[in-house]
TrEMBL record:
<dbReference type="GO" id="GO:0016094">
    <property type="term" value="P:polyprenol biosynthetic process"/>
</dbReference>
<feature type="binding site">
    <location>
        <begin position="23"/>
        <end position="26"/>
    </location>
    <ligand>
        <name>substrate</name>
    </ligand>
</feature>
<feature type="binding site">
    <location>
        <begin position="67"/>
        <end position="69"/>
    </location>
    <ligand>
        <name>substrate</name>
    </ligand>
</feature>
<comment type="similarity">
    <text>Belongs to the UPP synthase family.</text>
</comment>
<dbReference type="GO" id="GO:0071555">
    <property type="term" value="P:cell wall organization"/>
</dbReference>
<dbReference type="GO" id="GO:0005829">
    <property type="term" value="C:cytosol"/>
</dbReference>
<feature type="binding site">
    <location>
        <begin position="196"/>
        <end position="198"/>
    </location>
    <ligand>
        <name>substrate</name>
    </ligand>
</feature>
<dbReference type="GO" id="GO:0008834">
    <property type="term" value="F:ditrans,polycis-undecaprenyl-diphosphate synthase [(2E,6E)-farnesyl-diphosphate specific] activity"/>
</dbReference>
<comment type="subunit">
    <text>Homodimer.</text>
</comment>
<feature type="binding site">
    <location>
        <position position="73"/>
    </location>
    <ligand>
        <name>substrate</name>
    </ligand>
</feature>
<feature type="binding site">
    <location>
        <position position="35"/>
    </location>
    <ligand>
        <name>substrate</name>
    </ligand>
</feature>
<dbReference type="GO" id="GO:0009252">
    <property type="term" value="P:peptidoglycan biosynthetic process"/>
</dbReference>
<keyword id="KW-0961">Cell wall biogenesis/degradation</keyword>
<dbReference type="Pfam" id="PF01255">
    <property type="entry name" value="Prenyltransf"/>
</dbReference>
<dbReference type="InterPro" id="IPR018520">
    <property type="entry name" value="UPP_synth-like_CS"/>
</dbReference>
<keyword id="KW-0460">Magnesium</keyword>
<dbReference type="InterPro" id="IPR036424">
    <property type="entry name" value="UPP_synth-like_sf"/>
</dbReference>
Length: 255
């Protein structure tokens, strides 16, 4: 999919936005409140982001909610986050369904308790027929986990005689990572001021445009998201080619 769009005119609106929702803890600490309060405030910002994507006609939104490494946080904070997930799943899915949002989860689901796993399964099944916005929540997710899992799937196919080792290429691995059925993220947004990927979509973001803001996640508003979209619209995505090749009509670059 990335290759197909490589020589196309720059898309003004990203089809797929991937977001690291960072800064909840600092938002709470600045107010001398427990970090869990920040996570609760962050849950409200999730709705701001979803509303924005629905209004603008963005096709896919992938939100990083909890990383593989976040399991290492203090037990109390992990517990508060689990409670919040469960509440959000119970509270929000009806409304998301009503608005035509398809909800899916990526990550190591086995690490969650049974109640959360069941709610995730139910939300996916309930919204499976929707297509207005593809919302993916990355929870217990790590980019390295994703790639390792895809490598294991390749190995299993080879061992079972379904795949020749020579057939393993980027497309074969790319078909086995998470989000393989969506266009790769066009735009990555990270709040909270850190300029890093933190083990998010390592494979999928090879050519994603990166955008950072110092704003903390609970402070997110539509104006900030619009700034990200405006910056994105002004960028030239070259995918390794020259600016002249990108500017030229497709027929000329094909020679
Ligand atoms: C992001 O906010 C939410 C999760 C990682 C679950 P943080 O909790 O990382 O907030 P900061 O970065 O400590 O402020
Ligand atoms: C990334 O934020 C993960 C999520 C937002 C879910 P972190 O706060 O965990 O990342 P680092 O530790 O600053 O790299
Ligand atoms: Mg953080």
């Amino acid at each position: 999919m990335a290759a197909a769009s490589a020589t196309a005119a720059p898309a003004r609106l990203p089809r797929h936005i991937a977001v690291i929702m960072d800064g909840n803890g600092r938002w709470a600490e600045r107010r001398r409140r427990p970090r869990a309060v920040g996570h609760r405030a962050g849950a409200r910002a999730v709705n701001v982001c979803i509303d924005f994507c629905l209004e603008r006609g963005v096709e896919a939104l992938t939100l990083f909610a909890f990383s593989s490494e976040n399991w290492g946080r203090p037990e109390e904070e992990v517990g508060a986050l689990m409670k919040l997930f469960l509440n959000a799943l119970e509270r929000e899915v009806d409304e998301l369904h009503r608005r035509g949002v398809r909800v899916r989860f990526i990550g190591e689901r086995e690490r969650f308790g049974e109640t959360i796993r069941k709610q995730m399964d139910a939300a996916e099944a309930r919204t499976a027929g929707n297509a207005r916005l593809h919302l993916t929540v990355a929870a217990s997710y790590g980019g390295r986990w994703d790639i390792a899992r895809a490598a294991r799937a390749l190995a299993e196919d080879v061992a079972a005689g379904r795949l020749a080792p020579e057939a393993i290429d980027e497309a074969a691995l790319g078909a086995r990572v998470c989000l393989a059925d969506l266009p790769p993220p066009d735009l990555f947004i990270r709040t909270g001021g850190e300029m890093r990927i933190s083990n998010f979509l390592l494979w999928q973001m090879a050519y994603t445009e990166l955008w950072f803001t110092d704003l903390l996640w609970p402070e997110l508003d539509a104006a900030t998201l619009q700034r990200a979209l405006d910056d994105y619209a002004g960028r030239e995505r070259r995918f390794g080619l020259t600016g002249a090749q990108i500017a030229a009509p497709k027929s000329e670059t094909a020679e």
